[in-house]
Amino acid sequence: MGCFYSRRNEEEDTVYDMTPIRHLPVIFVNGVPGAGNQTVAQTMSNITGYTMIRPGELVRAEAQKDTARGRLIADKLQAQEDIPEQMTVDLIKEAMLQQAEAKGFILVGFPKNPRMSNIFNRQVKWPEKVVALEVDNEVAATRLQNKLSELGRPESEINAARQIVREAAHKVKNVHKRFGGHVVTLDSSGNPKALATTLKEILSDTIEKCQKRPDSPLADPGPPTAVSAPAVAPLSTPLTKAPIELKDEDC
Hints:
Blueprint: E1 26-30, H1 37-48, E2 51-53, H2 55-63, H3 68-78, H4 85-98, E3 105-108, H5 114-123, E4 129-134, H6 137-150, H7 155-159, H8 161-179, E5 183-187, H9 195-212, E6 226-228
Parallel strand pairs: 1-3, 1-4, 2-3, 2-6, 4-5
C-alpha cells in the first residue's frame, strides 16, 4: 500500500481494480456537521439494503494501525490537519472491495470537497445520486456543539462549531455544483415522520434501474450492513424536501 501522498499528484500510489464495484449503485449523503447525515443514511440503508460506508470512521480506525499510513493519519489527526483526499478515497475503495457482494453503497458525509469528489469519480465511478441535506447553519452549529459537549471535547472545539459548519457549508456547496442533476435536496431542519416516505420517492428511480439490470444484486434483498464513518457538507438545488428527526449520534 502506498504511503506517500502529494497534493500535486491526484493519482493513486496503489492501483485498485474497481471492476467488481462499478456496476453497483453509489449514493452520497452530504450535509454539514449537525445536518443529520447518519440518520438519513441509515434510513436509506433500511430502504435499499445498501451498505453504509462512513469515511471518517475508516480514517480513525486506520489511525490505530502501526503502519506507515496509519502513523501518517494519526499524526495528521493529532495536529488537526486534513487527511490527504487520495488517502481517504483509498480507504473507501478498500472497504468497497471487501464488500463486493453488496447491493450498493451509501457514503456518509462524502465528499468533503471538490477535489475528493474528482478523485472518487475518476478512480471509482460517478454516484447515481447525491442526497444534499439542507439545514440552517445556526441549527447545525447548535446540534454540533451539543454533540461535542456530550463527547467531552475541549471547550475550544465546542466554541469553534459555528466556524466548522460555515467552512463545511462553503466546501460542500462547491461539491454539489459539480453534480448538477444528480443532486436532490432534503430539508433536515425539522422532525416529522415523513422521512422514509420521502426517501423512498427520492430513491425510487435508482432502485428501479438497478432492479432492471440482469445482474442486479437487488433481486435478492437482504439485511443492510455498515462498513464504517461520520459526515460533512450541505445544501443545493431544491427538488424534494422533508424534515427529519435527528439522533444523538448525528454530526
